[in-house]
């Protein structure tokens, strides 16, 4: 059986930083409430995703207008696609890899800028001349882990050799900016890794464990608004639902307490199962890298699995919950800062809407 290893990583975030104090100007909240309950202090947001109230409050509280206009000018092109391309280029650069040699691009996102998917546009922007396959994977905050396992399966069973896995989300566009229970949580970002075929002895994906629970899906979602059908009358006077009206999605709706309970129950089980398949225990693992949703979830999972704080990777305070981007973003920072070194073992786990969750034991 072929092995596969991670050979490069990269990430990109929008330049606009939104602090807890900034948010307290538009909803009834405080820096203290947000940091104590979530661990989040800042998040990055694409300019276009901001509520007009925030833009107004920035004008009044952030100093000169020229600085505000400059921010808009600099951040105007921060589409999700551009962030994903920037993260991808950095990952390819780290691996000293030519984009023309890619065979597959997996874009893990729940917020594509086109409902038919973003991956082929990323392939185009990267200038891959040999038309590699590129498609999107939707699995919310578990998307990146699922993308990684899909990359490995394509390599091991499908004859692919060089797979770019991108996790990118712009959830702040789907937030209700009057709901203080959710609008404080999310940030926008992109992260990427290059996964390559290798000899079985060098394998860098030691094991995995993936699950979903549609029953629990009611606790977290942003469903399509299906009550917008025009009532047209047919020639016989009966109601017709044709042509249908343009669709739109509702904002993120979440039962935070249920999602919290689900995460602290299922994530440790999943990591334990992946560790067992790899023949490891938590003491053999160098780093615990969870989807960055809430510091209290990260701490609870670490305690349950006996991971000391110094083995836990967390950058949630600076970026908030960036959904499918959070794991590759935190991984990239940890690799570039020298925390994660070649040969280190990482227990990574994603969890979120669906509900979906899963773990991967990675050797960097
Ligand atoms: N500021 C001040 N008060 C607030 C805020 C806020 N931002 N948000 C809620 N409150 C209030 C509530 O109104 C409530 O007040 P009340 O007691 O007067 O009714 C009180 O604080 C408690 O509210 P809860 O919702 O019970 O607060 P909780 O302790 O559960 O914390 C939180 C909420 C932070 C969202 C938490 O439940 C959580 O992190 N859950 C997990 C979310 C998560 O991990 N999501 C990941 C998946 S995301 C994805 O897949 C897309």
Automatic annotation (TrEMBL):
Keyword Acyltransferase: no
Domain Beta-ketoacyl-[acyl-carrier-protein] synthase III N-terminal stretches: 135-214
Domain (Beta-ketoacyl-[acyl-carrier-protein] synthase III C-terminal): residue spans on this chain: 275-364
Keywords, sorted A to Z: Fatty acid biosynthesis, Fatty acid metabolism, Lipid biosynthesis, Lipid metabolism, Transferase
Gene Ontology CC terms: chloroplast
GO biological process terms held by the UniProt record: fatty acid biosynthetic process
GO terms for MF: 3-oxoacyl-[acyl-carrier-protein] synthase activity
Protein's pathway: Lipid metabolism; fatty acid biosynthesis
Family the UniProt entry places it in: Belongs to the thiolase-like superfamily. FabH family.
Protein name, entry field: Uncharacterized protein
Taxonomic source organism: Gossypium anomalum
Whole-protein coverage range: 65 to 428 of 429
């Amino acid at each position: 059986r072929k092995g596969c290893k991670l050979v490069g990583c990269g990430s990109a975030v929008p330049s606009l930083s939104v602090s807890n104090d900034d948010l307290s100007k538009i909803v009834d909240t405080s820096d203290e409430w947000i940091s104590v309950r979530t661990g989040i202090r800042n998040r990055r947001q694409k300019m276009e995703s901001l509520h007009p109230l925030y833009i107004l409050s920035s004008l009044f509280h952030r100093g000169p207008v020229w600085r505000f206009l400059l921010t808009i000018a600099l951040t105007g092109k921060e589409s999700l696609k551009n962030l994903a391309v920037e993260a991808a280029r950095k990952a390819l650069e780290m691996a000293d890899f030519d984009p023309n040699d890619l065979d597959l691009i997996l874009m893990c996102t729940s917020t594509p800028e086109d409902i038919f998917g973003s991956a082929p546009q990323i392939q185009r922007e990267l200038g891959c001349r040999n038309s590699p396959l590129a498609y999107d994977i939707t699995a919310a905050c578990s998307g990146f882990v699922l993308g990684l396992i899909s990359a490995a399966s394509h390599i091991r069973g499908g004859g692919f050799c060089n797979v770019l896995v991108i996790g990118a989300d712009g959830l702040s566009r789907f937030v209700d900016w009057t709901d203080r229970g959710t609008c404080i949580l999310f940030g926008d970002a992109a992260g990427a890794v290059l996964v390559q075929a290798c000899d079985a002895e060098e394998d860098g994906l030691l094991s995995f464990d993936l699950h979903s629970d549609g029953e629990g899906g009611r606790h977290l979602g942003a469903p399509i608004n299906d009550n917008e059908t025009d009532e047209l009358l047919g020639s016989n006077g009966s109601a017709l639902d044709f042509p249908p009206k343009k669709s739109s999605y509702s904002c993120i709706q979440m039962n935070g307490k249920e999602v919290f309970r689900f995460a602290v129950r299922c994530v440790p089980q999943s990591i334990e199962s992946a560790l067992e398949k790899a023949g490891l225990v938590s003491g053999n693992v160098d780093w615990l890298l969870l989807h960055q949703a809430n510091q209290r979830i990260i701490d609870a999972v670490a305690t349950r699995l006996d991971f000391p704080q110094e083995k836990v990777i967390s950058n949630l305070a600076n970026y908030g919950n960036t959904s499918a981007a959070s794991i590759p973003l935190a991984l990239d920072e940890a690799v570039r800062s020298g925390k994660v070194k070649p040969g280190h073992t990482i227990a990574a786990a994603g969890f979120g809407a669906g509900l979906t969750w899963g773990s991967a034991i990675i050797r960097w």
